[in-house]
């Protein structure tokens, strides 16, 4: 544990989350894998097994990231147990796609709470400690659709764009303390979330991607690992897009 960085990854059991956990373990991290409070230790064991993850390098944290008090309590316990956290990856996210005309308040609120309010809940309890230690890497997983907007995703695009504004603002506050705050904005990636899309819609989007393929979770995870590493020590407030050319800013 001595030489390992302590990392927290939310949405750890998801497509991109799993790849991030594996990549951070490769980069000498001990990872606290945050999964929804509905998951169990049996789910964690099955996940380790399925993805061949070294069980000595990862522990589960079952937290509802939309529950501010639960996050505050769980992260206070983390600091008590591990002393500090070096890296926070806010990756948890959901979709509730619908044209805006048909979008319900619950579709709006669920997405804003999970994808955006979770950033407050997870980052606030750790940020002061990172500043005091003069080291921190905060990486927020946004989306190409937060950058360019997307038909049927007013809720998701709002949350994902909000993550970028949050990251730039916090980057100012962390800079003097060597706490960097960056965003990775993936395009359409080979995950269960994208696999759940309507086939015709996905096919039409794929056809618009200059690289003519989806991203792999590994490609996204490598960008996260880079921003978490010493190689990215002077990068803050930046958004690193991985979208195969779908949107060039
Ligand atoms: N631009 C303009 N018009 C469009 C359009 C577009 N991109 N897409 C559809 N329309 C039109 C349709 O042609 C249709 O017009 P008519 O009524 O004249 O036929 C009308 O808008 C309604 O469209 P749908 O039939 O698609 O409406 P629906 O209610 O059946 O489905 C939807 C709505 C579920 C949102 C569907 O449009 C959809 O799946 N959209 C894509 C959403 C998307 O990209 N999600 C990404 C999920 S993965 C993810 O989010 C990860 C990430 O970060 C990238």
UniProtKB/TrEMBL annotation:
One of its GO terms (biological process) is poly-hydroxybutyrate biosynthetic process. Gene3D superfamilies: NAD(P)-binding Rossmann-like Domain. SMART domains: PKS_KR. GO terms for molecular function: acetoacetyl-CoA reductase activity. GO terms for cellular component: cytoplasm. Keywords: Oxidoreductase. Pfam families: adh_short (PF00106). Residues 5-189 form the Ketoreductase domain. Belongs to the short-chain dehydrogenases/reductases (SDR) family. This is SDR family oxidoreductase. The lineage of its organism: Bacteria, Pseudomonadati, Pseudomonadota, Gammaproteobacteria, Alteromonadales.
């Amino acid at each position: 544990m001595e030489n390992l960085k302590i990392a927290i990854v939310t949405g750890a059991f998801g497509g991109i989350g799993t790849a991030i956990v594996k990549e951070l373990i490769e980069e000498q991290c001990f990872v606290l894998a945050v999964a929804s409070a509905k998951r169990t230790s049996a789910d964690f064991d099955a996940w380790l097994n399925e993805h061949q993850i070294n069980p000595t390098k990862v522990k589960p944290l079952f937290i509802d990231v939309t529950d501010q008090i639960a996050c505050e309590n769980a992260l206070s316990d983390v600091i008590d147990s591990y002393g500090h956290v070096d890296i926070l990856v806010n990756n948890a996210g959901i979709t509730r796609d619908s044209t805006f005309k048909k979008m319900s308040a619950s579709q709006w609120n669920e997405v804003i709470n999970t994808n955006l309010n979770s950033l407050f809940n997870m980052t606030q309890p750790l940020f002061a400690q990172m500043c005091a230690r003069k080291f921190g890497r905060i990486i927020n997983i946004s989306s190409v659709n937060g950058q360019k907007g997307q038909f049927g995703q007013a809720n998701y695009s709002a949350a994902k764009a909000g993550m970028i504004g949050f990251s730039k603002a916090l980057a100012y506050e962390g800079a003097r303390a060597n706490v960097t705050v960056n965003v990775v904005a993936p395009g359409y990636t080979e995950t269960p979330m994208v696999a759940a899309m309507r086939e015709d819609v996905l096919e039409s989007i794929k056809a618009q991607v200059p690289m003519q393929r989806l991203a792999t979770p590994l490609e996204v995870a490598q960008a996260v690992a880079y921003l978490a590493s010493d190689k990215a020590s002077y990068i803050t407030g930046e958004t690193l897009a991985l979208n195969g050319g779908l949107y060039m800013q």
